[in-house]
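During the reporting period the student researcher (J.K.) took over the structure-prediction task from the postdoctoral fellow and processed the backlog of single-chain submissions. One of the processed entries is reproduced below for the supervisory committee.
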Amino acid sequence: MKKYGLAIQILIALVLGVAVGAIFHGSELLISILTPIGDIFLHLIKMIVVPIVVAALIVSIAGVGDIKKLGRLGGKTILYFEIITTIAILFGMLVGNVFQPGLGVNQEGLEKSDISQYQQSSEATKDSHGIGDIITHIVPTNVISSMANADLLPIIFFCVLFGLGVAAIGEKGKPVLSVTEGVLDAMFWVTNQVMKFAPFGVFAIIGVTISKFGVGTLIPLAKLVILVYITMIFFVIVVLGIVAKIAKVNIFTLLKVLKDELILAYSTASSEAVLPRLMDKMEKFGCPKSIASFVIPTGYTFNLDGSTIYQSIACLFIAQMAGIELSIAQQIMLVLVLMLTSKGIAGIPGASFVVIVSTLSSMNIPVEGIAVILGVDRIMDMLRTVVNVVGNALATIVMSKWEGEFDEEKSKKYIAEVKKSAEEAKAA
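J.K. obtained the following structure tokens:
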């Protein structure tokens, strides 16, 4: 396997995982054997994310050292995120209205899953998810607790202040900066070691998923799954493609550069799995470390294009399945509610479902319909994770160019290296 690149190894693991899961569908023994392997890989990923984010942010902010420049970057980033995610919501709503995937679906005959945990999470966040509450949540009361929970927004806030503090104290801050740079380099080395385990983790995760739910689960809800896939692919190629063209970047070139990360994101359905490598790769692509280290972690909370597309389609699917026809005014309200509920809760387990439950509740649409799509959610989650990753990579390029700090020569050189490596791999 060593002679193959990471992307090929993960693809082989993905295919084998699907095959084994399908052959041993419902096997408790297989699930008990593979679950720990998949969990260990995800734990390894979660283990390295926070140290890398903290170190990268402190190094980049201390390097900027200018609070005005940082404020300008932050304002532009949030504005860009809000525009793109709103387009994603509207796009999902348009597709849901045109193709009506929930029409004619009889939920009585479909297998349903327990949604109580998502209802509880929704109730817990409903009263604390206003704009004021989101802003308050950004400021941590205990940054160690935020790090333990991998709550990125409070971590980003603390690291920005700490990085500015390191820059402000001048010579005294240099040893701190030096240590942080050492931590960052060491964590990237750890990341490379963890990625060697990725094919085994992917095999286990996919094997367990297919064994639990079975390929047959897809058939009754095939229309929804296919629609979500086509919509997201179209969104990446056309909508993000237009944004990339405006930024003078080819979207297909970006996808080729991110090939390994996208396959890993698809296989694990985890954005966290590629965060360290994504930050490193965007820096190689020509984005300054200070921008990549700020935009990508922030985007993991505020710029989830794939998730927002899915949430808007799923809400309409459930309403259509329940026979509820939403008026134009109600759909406008649905868009406004999604714009709010889709922000700031990315750290909650099953965040997309929590958003959907919260949104449906506020619109007086029966939330029980969500139990029908839980069985196929993993299949859709895999692609929406990919879209989230592409969206945040593109956002980093856009912000770098907007700030006039994108290194065109470095980008061209790196793209040439990627193309050369691809040609050598084909020849081998």
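The committee noted the following: The chain has one domain: 6-427.
J.K. will present the remaining backlog at the next meeting.
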